[in-house]
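Researcher: Quick test of sequence recovery. Tokens follow.
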């Protein structure tokens, strides 16, 4: 292993862009399908992995929504979340802010409470047994209507103490942030933080809308912001964090080759970029895999990696005391 890979493994990390349903490994998919007596359209784990060959975001989403069909009862959501937290523990990920897609489940007749109780029970155990802190972000599916998002927010309000914020994901093109302006305003009025996927496949205008209309606290992906110098200046001036997902960008053809990935350029421009895994079971790797692959491809040095780790802590929804404790861990690691 290279010295830099070793440095990455030991680096204290924070993950800010992770869809819990995207951490469903094919092995767990098969065992849950068996447990719940669901027939999968695949014969083996190998066949599932072979199907993970995507030309764009929609190709992936079609398989992602199909895959989450094996999640039926609270224990399934617990097992899914616990498996992810074990990966985090093995990769020195100290804090996570994870997305879930309730509409992907309630549309199949699963109760909102079943989903959130399973996930949060595992997150509580993650804190107790693994020392990993967490926040939960509820995403609205942007290919559905704003009325549907409003209904989902209503269902979530009795569980508001378990949710730190709301996000926006799914098919970006043709579903601009402006479509969700009112439901985001309601979420903010309820005291929730806001984030949104923007500029993954969609144009820079969608990033402007996420900032101006949804008033996001953090931007998910944001790659295409680089096409607009005025937007770059705005993001730098506001210290807006971008949750960048290198292996996702490669697998979904947002970049053709990881050597062309804009992460290093983002850092050089003064953007608060962070590294994340998005849907690790589908895109070929968790946090360390993302860091290692992009560091090698674009030539990151230790100083870049420390900046990325600190950016994630500063961009998290932790309080100042919690941030300070994690920043001290990174500082101590930097001195080793
Ligand atoms: N849902 C899960 N992963 C996603 C991504 N990368 N972009 C948009 N929606 C998603
Ligand atoms: Zn995502």
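Model:
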């Amino acid at each position: 292993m290279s010295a830099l890979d070793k440095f990455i493994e030991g680096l204290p990390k924070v993950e800010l862009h992770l869809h819990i349903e995207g951490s469903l490994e094919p092995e767990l998919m098969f065992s849950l399908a068996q447990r719940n007596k669901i027939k999968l359209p695949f014969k083996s784990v190998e066949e599932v992995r072979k199907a993970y060959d995507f030309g764009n975001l929609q190709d992936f989403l079609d398989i992602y929504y199909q895959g989450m069909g094996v999640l039926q009862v609270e224990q399934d959501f617990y097992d899914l979340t616990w498996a992810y937290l074990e990966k985090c523990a093995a990769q020195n990920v100290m804090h996570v802010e994870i997305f879930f897609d309730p509409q992907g489940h309630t549309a199949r007749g699963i109760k909102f409470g079943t989903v959130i109780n399973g996930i949060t029970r595992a997150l509580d155990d993650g804190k107790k047994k693994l020392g990993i802190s967490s926040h939960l972000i509820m995403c609205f599916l942007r290919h559905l209507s704003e009325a549907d998002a409003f209904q989902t927010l209503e269902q979530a309000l009795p569980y508001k103490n378990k949710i730190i914020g709301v996000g926006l994901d799914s098919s970006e093109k043709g579903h601009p942030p402006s479509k969700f302006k009112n439901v985001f305003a309601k979420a903010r009025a309820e005291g929730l933080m806001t984030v949104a996927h923007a500029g993954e496949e969609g144009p820079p205008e969608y990033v402007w809308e996420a900032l101006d209309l949804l008033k996001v606290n953090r931007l998910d992906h944001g790659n295409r912001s680089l096409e607009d110098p005025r937007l770059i200046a705005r993001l730098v001036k506001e210290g807006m964090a971008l949750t960048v997902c290198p292996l996702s960008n490669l697998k979904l053809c947002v970049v053709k080759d990881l050597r062309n990935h804009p992460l290093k350029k983002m850092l050089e421009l003064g953007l608060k970029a962070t590294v994340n895994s998005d849907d690790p079971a589908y895109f070929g790797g968790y946090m360390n895999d993302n860091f290692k692959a992009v560091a090698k491809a674009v030539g990151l040095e230790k100083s870049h990696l420390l900046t990325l780790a600190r950016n994630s802590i500063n961009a998290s929804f932790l309080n100042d005391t919690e941030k300070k404790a994690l920043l001290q861990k990174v500082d101590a690691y930097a001195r080793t």
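The mean pLDDT is 98.
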